[in-house]
Fold this sequence. Notes:
Layout (H helix, E strand, L loop, with lengths): L10 E2 L16 H45 L5 E2 L10 E6 L5 E6 L5 E8 L13 H8 L12 H8 L3 E6 L4 E8 L3 H13 L8 H16 L2 H11 L15 H6 L3 H15 L5 E7 L3 H12 L7 H4 L18 E6 L6 E8 L10 H10 L6 H8 L3 E9 L5 E9 L1 H5 L1 H18 L1 E2 H16 L6 H11 L20 H8 L8 E6 L2 H4 L5 E4 L4 E7 H4 L1 H10 L5 H12 L42 H6 L4 E2 L6 H4 L34 E7 L8 E11 L8 H27 L3 E7 L2 E8 L1 H17 L6 H16 L5 H13 L6 H10 L2 H5 L1 H6 L3 E9 L3 H17 L10 E2 L12 E6 L8 E11 L2 H25 L5 E9 L2 E10 L4 H21 L3 H15 L6 H12 L8 H12 L3 H12 L7 E8 L6 H9 L4 E2 L7 E5 L6 H5 L5 E6 L2 E5 L3 H14 L7 H4 L47 E2 L34 E3 L8 E3 L6 E9 L5 H11 L5 E7 L4 E8 ...
Parallel strand pairs: 4-8, 9-14, 18-22, 24-28, 24-41
Antiparallel strand pairs: 1-13, 2-3, 3-4, 5-7, 5-8, 6-7, 9-16, 10-12, 10-14, 11-12, 15-16, 17-18, 19-21, 19-22, 19-23, 20-21, 25-27, 25-28, 26-27, 29-30, 30-32, 31-32, 33-40, 34-35, 36-38, 36-39, 37-38, 42-43
Helix pairs in contact: 2-5, 2-8, 3-32, 4-9, 11-17, 14-20, 14-21, 24-25, 24-28, 25-31, 26-28, 32-33, 32-34, 32-36, 32-37, 33-37, 38-40, 38-42
Amino acid sequence: MNSTQSATDDRVPIGGGALAAPLVGKEDPETKSVVDARLSLWASGCAVAAATVVTLLLLLSYSLKTWHLERSIRGIDGMPVLDKPIGDSRTYHFSRLDNGLEVLNIHDPEAVTAAYSMAVEAGSWDDPRKIPGLAHFCEHMVFLGSEKFPEASGYDKFVNSHGGYLNAYTAEQATVYFTELSGGGFDEGLARFADFLQAPRFDEEYMAKEVNAINSEHAKNVQDPGWRVNAVMNSLANPLSPMSRFHTGDEETLQKSISVSNLQSSLRTWFNAHYCPSRMHLVTLSSETEAQQLEQAKLAFGNMSTGSLICQGDVETWASPEPWPESQLGRWVTVLGTQPQPSMLLHFPMPDLTKEFLSQPTSYLQYVLTYGGEDSHLTLLRDDLGLISGFSIGFQMSSAGGALIAEYSLSELGLQHPGLVIDVFFQYVSTLRSSSVDRDLYASLANVTKLEWDWSPHASPADTASGLAERMTRLPPESLLSGDSIIKVPDPALVADLLTLLTPDNMNALLVTPDAEERFGSSHVHTLAHYDVKFATTKLADQFPESYMLWSKWLSASGAEDSKQELSLRLQEVQPGKPLMIQIPEPPEPISNVPKSIDTQHMHADRPEIPGDFDTSLFGRRPEPLSLQEDQGNNSKANGKAASGTAVSFATNGTATSAASGKTPVANNMSTWYRAGWVTTSPKVKLNVALRPWRTQEQWEPPVEEGLRLQLYSALLGERMAPKLFDDAVVGGDYNLKFSGNGIHLGFTSFPTELAKLVDHTLAETMQGVNGTSLSQFQRVQHDMVEGLKSYSEMPVHYAIEDRGLLLTTGTHSKEESLPALEKLDLPAVLSASAELLKDPLELTALVVGNLEKSQGQEVLATTVAGLQNMSVKVGQGTGELMLVTPVVDPGRPLELRKQNPRADDPNDVAVVTLLDGVSTVESRVLYGILGQILSQLAYDELRTEKQLGYVVSAGELQISNIQAVSIVVQGTALDADSMEAAIEHVYFQSMPKLLANLTDEDFQSYKAALKHQLLEPPLNIGEEFSHWWSLVSMHGACLGLRNEMLTYLEKFVESKKQLVEAWSKLVLPASGARKKVAVKYFDVRAAGRAVQALSRTYKHCAFGPQNGSRAVQLSGAVPVDASFLSAISGIYYKGKWDGHYVVEFFDVRDAERLCETIGESAEMFAESEAVAGLSAHPSWLQCPPGVSGEMFAGAEGGTPCKGFMATPPATDEDFLTTEATTSSSCPTPPPGLTPPPGLDTPPGLEPAAVQKPEALTHAPHAPCGGMAKAAALPACQVHVVGLHNRLLSNAMFEAMLDQAGIDSAVLGFSTVLGSTCGEALVSFSSYPAAIHFTHHVQGCQWGQDSQVVARIVEPEEAMCRAHDVATPSQKPRTKSEPTAKPGALQARLPRGAPAYVQMGSRLSATAAPFVPLGAAKVEKVEKEEAAAAGRPRRGSGRKTSDGGPWARAGSDASTEVGESEAEGDGESPRVSTTVSAVGSTPCKVAPLLSGEVEVASG
């Protein structure tokens, strides 16, 4: 406190804090020299003494602290960390080993898995100037083998076999490694972890691969909008500061500019200079005691060398050179954005506040700047002015300094007036400064942070360990748990000083917009190296000369008073000529509703010990149905709150009605549930309510407009409600309200004392609706949604997974469908959306769990029902059934979606290949749970580590609704999507079966134990606990014992890997029917691929435009083809007419071929037109159509484009020539077992030494494009394929097919026959493996475009497996009715079925049947006791297990594939995955039968 303050003043003036010079009050200039003279002698005499005393005191203080610290943390005992949350049952112990390594051991008695993490005080800012990215490269390389464990993938495999995962990240000043795995793997895992941190091999063999991985990672970052903008922002810093540099690393910095040997040498040198115990901080977490964990840490790291002298020295800090000198500030930067919605960032450098953790000054700034209550800074800009759609504040902290970053999402109006947004910001800062720092508000924030910290949920073991390891690099041991979370010692003076830094002189402002190039003007345009981001800079004062002066004036002591009036005048620019009624924001008041005490009497859930009931031991007693009619007189108030037994029906006038006499109505369409307390620890309560519509099967696919109207209604309602409910939610509260085609969903979280108020207030505001919405507000929100649909800010793999869901699940619509429908909506249509939803009866399901007794649960539910009553909600039986489970389409045949990568300028291709099994069962969940672990590691090792296909590779088992599936996802630039798919199929068909065949019993038991650990893992927090129960309650209590059934089946009936082999074989090679394969493939349209070359070699009717990184067909502008014609061709992306030409982009040879063929067919009608006949330029775009002679183009430059093609068409199909092959030797012996489909490499045996590549192609005179035969006389096997579309039987298309299969060199010749729609092909191969390989490829659904059956006949054994001579074109042509290859002994074993070829934006689910018809959706519940009492088996389809044990099929908990969780859900609770069925075996209970026979019960 300075001398101008009153001792009782609760506010601190700006400028009097720790960062400013001391204030001594106002001084009279005339007396200043006299005062200085009188003080000078005293000052000079005391200076030396004062300095000496201060120095001695500091030295003494430091010595005492050092002595105390050394005494407390050295040796075995160390020190416990006691400053921890009230609700944290874990114990923490800090130690320092003799070599200097710091260790934090965490004992969690409830932990099923263990974790460990190491933070190293070395990061990207420590990169050598000439090798950017070296620290990141080191992080990658240390995992790839160590001195004791040299196998490159050994650690990955070990962790995966113990059901775990590992990761690492490189920050500016630290690198953090972490692993989580089952407890049984902790000791060996920690030993392996320690060895690669002490003695990594840095094998030169893997360096190029990891550089490629880093380059892929960087390519991903380049496409991330936030990463790009942050890179531009940091590039503005002092060039001498590491803050301004590039640190990720890429191919240029780690490969092209340095040799491999020099890179390896530099890496070793850098590692030795930065990795040593004194810079390392280890955290372990397990169910073992702290002492046991410490011993393991000593065994693993105790003998680690103290390292080099350089490493033992001080860790470098980066405060100098100053990163943000005055010369680097005061800039206006216009950045070319990649997303349609513009944004603006205000960047204010600040000092390093790392050591100010006790006062948390940024928490105060965060709250006052982002306060979202009524009449706030946010509501003024968003609701009153319509300049923004969102606002956030972020902070950066490092030893080089910190920064406050304010980010605004601009509306169209805001983009026109960015200066007005800054006006509002600085006027509000002026108000904050002139009002001083509110001590009461600061104190209330301290209370809130303490309350939230005391009851904060546990993070996962890996997140806990890695988070604390990073904190150990910057916080003292006693504050490791609290330092980042709570305000212990408020420092108003420091906050006041930080506010003085929010000035235009200390700011850079960045405008990020897709139209930046139009705004660059005469400014010099920069292109940021490594990111290719264009931006231009100018002085902020030049960009906003008038505003700049006002900002500086408002922030002065004399200008604050006039700032409000002057701001009001400036804001008239938004609506010139109209009076603007606005409220200039004031600072928020102190938070008043912080509970002083919390009753925790009902906080802990009952966990009864029931033998075999794992579910109860993990999650506590199950929720019980709650009747709102019980004790109605005592527990339900008479003021209109409804009570009922199982349902309430509300009339439209808002009063409760009943068919019975005057009593509270009771029906059968309300399901309310309650459970007291938590297995985890929290005094809060959670309440979920779902009001779901009844739907007939015809209503499964509602119109796109219906969902969009409700989505807009929800957005408008949420925006209107947020300021009114902001204060209610500040103290541990949260609410969620959503209107959608699936009904109304409400969610609440709060302390019990505040819950009723939060529910009442939310429902009251919901009842008000959005009738007061202005047209401008509606247009802004609508525009934001439109821009959101146009935006692709996520990685492309995210959208590919979304597209898979679009194809397979009901009720979803593509962006292509949604955009035009959204743009057509008007305000009246949206205002009536909720009334349309509420006009029909809804089913109500509710669950309340937490710290409240049963009567309180009844009361809060009655409060909720009363609020819904006021909204005129009708609860009752409607027409149709409830969609308890999202229907999933049964494709019936392989399905492929081919699509352009939706992200502009994104170089990645994507392949998502999913195999669907069917309705999940207890068996499938267990077996696929194990298979998913194995597949995950295998796919990562093969596709990412070995083949380096891309940075994003994930695989595993997943549930799509209640359908079991496996999936592999690849995103990268190394291959096109077709080749990625081939590589994925290689994993499915070859690598996985091989791995399963070689799986040792030890490995099998390890995977089995890992799954058991996963199933026995308790919830970490109340969110996980509540979601578990809600997913089951929303199914009306079905499948509550599923986990028990899975664990029992795993323990008793999963005995050997044979079951895994059988399950996998059934999935990839079903005995009958087609594989249910869904492939979604995105293609990088900029990359010219083999497809273009293959097509251009043979087809002469299309001119391939300049290949400037684009797969394009260029058509002359004189061609009578319009946009609607082009867009009607599936898979074609029409770019528009330019410079007299049409340029059409395509994805591969098939799409281009279809375009050219279609144009050729349509050109027949224009053959006589002057537009075609009079072409003087190359008419090579046009194929000679049937009946058109090539001579008509004789005057064209370059001669007849149809040269080499027939001049007249054949009379009949029989006139098409096909070749036959006959010789007299035999094929090689077929290899045993399954032969894989195409992989990246040519599979073994497909290119025997005797095979000679053909030297010439022979064109047949009667084929439209020249049927070809390869001249050879080698041993051959024939494959006869029927059902291929004619478009696939042309020379170029068939060549491309064989090329993509990787077996073109093993082909001796082929013959084709065109039919009316589909035809046949006969292919001769030099070996039996090649023939089998081809059958797999044809089935692999890359090629079919129509729902024609593709049959393959391979006859390698008896008469058909002969050596053949390739026929000459003069031989008698074969007709389609007389195939050369007759049906023989061996049928191709893969399931049959051509793929559906899906057009962009189309919906398979609109026409295909689901796996499980919902028309008779019933859930069978069979208790074990009931089955035993029956004394007889249930009826159903039988299946025997290995020991005759009985198992029925059942439902599931929700489960998602790694990397796919975001795309499958809709933002609500985890998707319900419990089985509902009318056909097939679908009960949720597995009941043992008394007889020895085993049957699967029918639903």
